[in-house]
Amino acid sequence: MMPLFGREHEVATLEGFVDRVHERGEALVVRGAPGIGKSALLGAAVERAEAGRLLVSTASGVQSETHLPFAGLHQLLRPLLGAADQLPARQREALLGAFGMAGTGDPEPFLVALAVLTLLGDAAARRPLLIVVDDVQWLDGPTIEVLGFVARRLRSDPIVLLMALRDGHPTSLDAGDVPELRLGGLAPEAAEALLDARGSGLGVGLRWRVLSEAAGNPLALVELPLALQAGTVADETGFLPLTARLERAFAARLAELPPHTRGLLLVAAANDGHDLADALAGGAMVTGACLTAEALAPALDAGLVELHDQALRFRHPLVRSAIYHKAGRTERLAAHAALARVHERDPDRRAWHRAAAIAHRDESVAAPVCLAYPLLRVSARRGDRAPGRVRRRRAGRGGRAGTAAGRDHGGGDRAAPGGGGQRGAGGRRPSPADRRRAGLRARPRRPGRRAARAGQAGRPRRAAARQGRLAERGARRGTQRRPRTDPAAGHDGRGGARGG
Ligand SMILES: Nc1ncnc2c1ncn2[C@@H]1O[C@H](COP(=O)(O)OP(=O)(O)O)[C@@H](O)[C@H]1O
Ligand SMILES: [Mg+2]
């Protein structure tokens, strides 16, 4: 197996569990974002166990079987079921009943759980046992409950139970009574080492883009270079291309969300800032509904976005990219057209979104528009391909073109779970555009204050009460900023419905 970069501590922890198995049984839940390396880490424990001649039993949650009670347990126990004959009669009946192999009627959950514990204990008495359960978020509920029951009772039996669970999926393991290991993004040096070990051959600018966009996520570090080799450097709006695997990992939850939430997220992804009110206003235009912050709740629950004060941020830059890529061209056009209206009092931003809307409609129209300043700003952010003319121009504008007021791909949305260091990337100072924007807002607010607050790094996450207040405020603002004219028409008045 390829070495795991930057996970020395975590690997040592799991190997410690395996090495101590003769002394005591233990359980651990490994938590983290998609692609962060949970399965890879479990793989390291399996290697150690095999080297130590432990019996290894594995199972993995499968999305299509989530609604089949005990399907996961069946997967896990199949190799051991031959020994079910030796179980006490009632436990045997309950367990085999759960698998439809005996009796009728509903199996008694406690007896099923007890039977599993007995069966595992008997197996471990013959040979110490490592049980690895991956993608627990997709297991059926009854199986997860049995695993929790077992995890809480491992003491003297030589059994190690390791479970990997993706963020943003509430399960009965959330009670906190099973020890957890949280995986955050790789440290910068480890991320660089992983990228370079893959021999991606990227130029300096693109390498920096990949490191920045991956925000320490190993899957992104492995896959982004592949996407770059396969296709374009970045699309007309500056997003890096994604592989299907990345899209699946980062936009997996999107399909479960209500249409209004999806519309809102697309506008937020297309937006060049973090203001919730802007996203709500644009979202209202594209969905035709009066959106409040409530529309965001399913995305917050799914762990796709975070809300701090009035700033809406994606949990990972690639969540944003994946949402943008997954939308059809028509939807993207509508999102940019709506944002051009939302930013109609900011010439730079309005022009940028108008141009992006046009670019999505017709590449040949986009070409001459690309000569306008706002799009040059984007190409300048494409690293390797920035023409000298653009770089000079950026310098000449006092760095303005490089501020987060433009496309905030860098790390503005970076917030790797548990990765305190990553979060700081959101701590940008308010840019001139932020200040200008704030100054244009309704009078009582003092210019720049909101932008400054929105940009503060590492502010602790406020609890539900605050979100309730936000929802109210969002509702008011969202309503105030309802579309003034036909939203689909877009700012250029050429109609938003003909996207493709
Ligand atoms: N620390 C690491 N060093 C090198 N490669 C890694 C590391 N962690 C994960 N990977 C690789 O990144 C990809 C995603 O990791 P994976 O374990 O599948 O993530 P998860 O299970 O959390 O979704 C895999 O190809 C894996 O081999
Ligand atoms: Mg995995």
TrEMBL record:
<feature type="region of interest" description="Disordered">
    <location>
        <begin position="383"/>
        <end position="500"/>
    </location>
</feature>
<keyword id="KW-0547">Nucleotide-binding</keyword>
<dbReference type="GO" id="GO:0005524">
    <property type="term" value="F:ATP binding"/>
</dbReference>
<feature type="compositionally biased region" description="Basic and acidic residues">
    <location>
        <begin position="483"/>
        <end position="500"/>
    </location>
</feature>
<feature type="domain" description="Orc1-like AAA ATPase">
    <location>
        <begin position="3"/>
        <end position="161"/>
    </location>
</feature>
<feature type="compositionally biased region" description="Gly residues">
    <location>
        <begin position="417"/>
        <end position="427"/>
    </location>
</feature>
<keyword id="KW-0067">ATP-binding</keyword>
<dbReference type="GO" id="GO:0004016">
    <property type="term" value="F:adenylate cyclase activity"/>
</dbReference>
<dbReference type="GO" id="GO:0005737">
    <property type="term" value="C:cytoplasm"/>
</dbReference>
<protein>
    <submittedName>
        <fullName>Putative transcriptional regulator</fullName>
    </submittedName>
</protein>
<feature type="compositionally biased region" description="Basic residues">
    <location>
        <begin position="388"/>
        <end position="397"/>
    </location>
</feature>
<dbReference type="InterPro" id="IPR027417">
    <property type="entry name" value="P-loop_NTPase"/>
</dbReference>
<dbReference type="Pfam" id="PF13191">
    <property type="entry name" value="AAA_16"/>
</dbReference>
<feature type="compositionally biased region" description="Basic residues">
    <location>
        <begin position="438"/>
        <end position="452"/>
    </location>
</feature>
<dbReference type="InterPro" id="IPR041664">
    <property type="entry name" value="AAA_16"/>
</dbReference>
